[in-house]
TrEMBL record:
Biased composition, class Basic and acidic residues, residue ranges: 214-225, 441-450
GO biological process: transcription by RNA polymerase II
Family: Belongs to the RPAP1 family.
Domain RPAP1 C-terminal: start-end pairs: 286-351
Sorted UniProt keywords: Nucleus, Transcription
Biased composition (Acidic residues): 429-440
Keyword Nucleus: yes
Protein name per UniProt: RNA polymerase II associated protein 1
Spans annotated as Disordered: 63-92, 136-155, 198-247, 427-450
Domain RPAP1/MINIYO-like TPR repeats, residue spans: 817-1043
The RPAP1 N-terminal domain, residue ranges: 161-202
Subcellular location: Nucleus
Amino acid sequence: MLRRPKPTDSEADLLREQELFLNSGASSKVNVVRRPDKRRGEAFSILSRRVLFAADLPDQLPTLTPAPPKKSRFKANSVRFEEEDPEERLDRQDTHISAVLSRIIERDTSSTPVSLPPFTGTAFPKVLRLSEADGPSAASGPWLVSGQGLGGPDSPAETMRIHRENEAKLQAMSESEIREEQKKLLSQLDPRLVEFVRSRKAQSVPPSTTPSKYPEDKRDQEECLPKNVDNESDSSSAAGLHQKPLELPVKPQKEWVHMDKLEPEKLEWTRDLPAPRRKGTKKAMQARFDFAGTLIPPTEDLPTHLGLHHHGEEPELAGYSLQELFLLSRSQVIQQRSLALSTIASVLAKARAGEYTSVLRGNMTSTLLDAGLLFLLRFALDDSVEGVMSAAVHALRALLVSPEDEECMDSTFSWFRGLASFPLLPSSQEEEDEDNEGLEENMKETVKEKEERKTDYDVARLDVVKGLLKMKLLPRLRYILEVVRPAPRVVQDILEVLTRIARHSSSSATQVLDCPRLMETVMSEFLPTSWTMQSLPLPQSVYGLPLASAMKLLRVIATSGRHACARLLNSLGARERLSRLLSVEPSELLLEPAEALRITTEAYRLWAVAAGYGQACNLYIDLYPTLLEVLLSVHRALAPSDPLLPLQLQRVLAQLSFLTQVTHTAGCHQELQAGVVPHEPKVAKHTSLYHQVALVLLPWLLPSSEYLAHELLSTIVFSKEFISEGHSGGPEAIELSELKLYEDTHHHTAPSFQTVGALLREACVQLPSIRGCFLTHLAHLEASVLVSRDAYLGRNPWINSQLLPELTGPTLPSDWPFLPLVSLYERMGVSNGGGLQVEELPQGALQAVTHCLQWLLLLEVWREDALKVVLPVAKLARLSCVFLCSSDLFLERPVQKLSWGLLRLLTRPSRLDSLDLDVPPPGLASFQDLYSALLAQYEAVSFGDRLFGCWVLLPLQRRYSSTLRLAVFGEHVGMLRSLGVTLEQLPVPLERFTSPPEDSLPLLRLYFRSLVTGTLKRCWCPVLYVVALSHLNTFIFSQDAAAQVMQPVHYR
């Protein structure tokens, strides 16, 4: 089927479509009409379209030359000579009438009556309509010859005579002649005229009065044919000239308005929808949602009266995609904008609830934000239509506010340290600071300057709340509250959005507080000091009524800092609101009972936050009688079926939180900490349990709990009294078990061997020094410890903010026992150039490493569960710092003894089975990178040390990747001369190196080459010599001849 040209078609596309049109033989809808040239005596004619083919175009453009001047034909003929005779000129130019008229036959009109038109009272004669002209005789007479132009008394007879002559002539013609004449006739007529006649006849002639036996839609082509002519021949003759009219889904009627010109493309939308996709399809489809945000399955066949079908890319599917919702939100129709924003709000709410997790790929909220949702909502807030603006506020609330999180934080307010809360910041993302590279410190941009230089998009991409604040959201919300005065639901949404912004950070809370007239509007309109009781349970407006959400906004702002709390109490009148709301019972507040309980609960919470800073405590004296009465009435039992019971309990808990903070402020002092060492016999029995709990608790402490971590480390973790094994025969028992083990296995110890029992006994003696070592490495937390101490000890006047530090992770890492060792490696480790950053160890480094290894040995033996959070591969990587942070630290005798003991503990059968080197250690890309550094360090500074050799041999077991073994026999083959660990010194059974047989042909070639060339000898490297020989023997004597073919190796 031919298509209409599009604006995007090129010239080649147009020429190709033209050729297809000409080849199809269809008639043109547009004709080139040339007006007749009267000067040449031409008659009016319809010319065929002038067609230009691509093949007829020249290869090169013709040169542009000026056209010759035009000459007027009339000017040449207007030349006159004075002596010329006008009569002769007239005879020369004029022609005889016989050249125009010939064979004129006059009709006898002597008997024809002459009738004058009748006189009427109207200005114009009556219009003759075709429906009135058609009479009963039209059905039996001729269709084309009416006889109206004859004008004689015998005109009907003359008409019938002409009709019979036409029929006789048609009967005498053959079928081919009839088709030829029909083609000739249709070619001379305008196709639009034919279509017009065809449509008029279809409307004017009803089917019941049609005398023809042929179908109605073909009657206009069959009227001029005899009855014995086949119907199919006629239809086939016109098929090449005209396309068959499309079957429209509806038949337009004459009475329909504005249907005089049909548009089939638009009428196509009135057809029935195609069937949805069959169930069981695996093809991914675009998500579509209804107006409530519910995901509509693509196979769901919903009725059209729900309004979910539209003229989109997939009209058969119900619902709206996100792209279509974004398009509708910018529509010029108000209802479409409001509906789109409301639907987006529902989608956001359901996405936050996790309803799309199992059916949609990716994160719905992230997808919407990447598509520009934040800017769309910000633009919609500036809409002049209140309905659109309200829908935008609701969508913004669905994006920012999590009702479940708010409910949880309200429920935990009365817990220990429940007043404090973490800032709701996004996950920190490191940005590349390319602009400041190579600049001095005084020339680099500050954080504030960087933020100001960023665009709104860059800020919103990293932090939604910061982006909204940069787009001036707060002044717009103030305008809506102060000027627009929207419905109660919009007011609640705005207050919840402001609360979420205040929870973001202390700076965001300060911006809410500093926004001109924003907090003044909240205090005057939604926290008034006087109001009247509402007659309806759901008022039409909440202006002039106290709202619990407004009081909660004050409480969250007060949490951000003591200065913000003081501004609320003293400058904005929060103190008067507290006195007004808490001086009477909730039933006397002229509010709905549930709302009265909520707002008094929030008032107590705000007072508790203020008392946590040592502020507003003088109100306690003023409201003491009321508070005493409240406390005395707490014991009254409420019915379990009372719907207000949860609200009543929340109010009681808020009162207790307030009283706790007032007590801390009134009796602000630090109790003497004489230590927590238990002296009672019953308590002393569970010291080991206390110690294990303290070790488990340490990695779980979050920021703002630095004081607890310091107290645990100072009093319990490194205390001899809490490690009962150290003074109850524990080291001796370890010695006996080791002696029995080595006697049974006939192992010979290394020269520096010392039993683990002796090492443990020495570690218990050094516990105070070990504690000092770790506290020294945690000295950078001193400021945080002091701030946390004020909060935990209830020193309210010294507390600056109830907003906790940013949550970036626990206070101490899970591998904190390795902290001194890792810190030394970061200071002394291998640089990018491959050498050590510092040649000499700093003062006290040997002692710090010794204390760290002693503490690790103690934990591995007696507190193994405390180190289960550290992966075995992470332990091996951290202990490898002993060899990497210095060129001779591992040669020191205390380090040697402790490292041998830890190596024997790590190579026990149960530990070896759990050691997985394919898992990358925390902080490293892969273990292979660490092992490459170990091999390079061994070649450089090992001096054939047996401890370092055992450490290098450990990853070469058969169960680990062959890449590690290829690194030894390929890149670092020179180390085979100094890797002199004997089979007796090897802490790992030899079978773990030789079984199963090696299947890596490149590694087997390296084994063979090292043995043949003498690079690998038994006297130099006994362990790997036996390993290589075993694998080669297995390969040679267990494979067929085809598998034994190895590439030739050339040696010098």
